[in-house]
Design brief:
The structure is a single chain. Helix 3 crosses helix 5 (64-75), helix 11 (147-154) runs antiparallel to helix 12 and helix 14 packs antiparallel against helix 15 (212-219). Helix content is 63%, strand content 0%. The model has no long low-confidence stretch (mean pLDDT 96). The chain is globular. It is mainly α and 223 residues long.
Amino acid sequence: MITYEETLLRLRALQDDKYAAFHKRLLKNDSIELIGVRTPQLRALAKEWKGEQDIFLSFPDEYYEITLLKCALVGMLPYDKFIGYIDSILPLLNNWATCDLFEAPCIKKHREEFLPFIRKYLQSGKEFTVRYALVALLRYYMDREYLTCIFDCVEHADEKQYYIMMGAAWLIAEVLVKFYEEGVAYLSENRLPAAVHNKAIQKACESFRIAVEQKAELKSLRR
């Protein structure tokens, strides 16, 4: 059984100080402590420690990398076990990177079952819990059959919380990339908060996957 001290030794052996400084600037949260281990290396360690999530969940969250390992280990679980852990993981999310990297492939085969969890998290009022739900919609539900669900979920996004607003805009921008006509029809209804509406258009227009003439049409919809 690996200990917290042994885990830190393994992480520090992979430490990259320049990467730590660079990534900390991106996180925009000075309270987060980083060792400086790149994400692919963390994922490799998580695979090595697969099944040891209970041990890791007992570790303190002193470092960004420890929290990310907890997320990775829980994310590897089969769905019936995963849902028993997710409510204890979400409170650990305190930055956009950990939130967006928290993946659980098991959700793909249990999308209907997981929708009540997404709706619950959207109503939590907690910035990174809500963002997790929005990113989960983008990652696992970006199909035509779920567009109505996506639209219903996203229009209640709190534009005053930056990472929620950006997550909602990212979600709608991806809808525009994959389902342009449906996305434009939705934007034309002006159901989104103005900040989310305009940011979604901006992000879509920054994409090389949107045609020039489509970008012109989108810009005409700005509020």
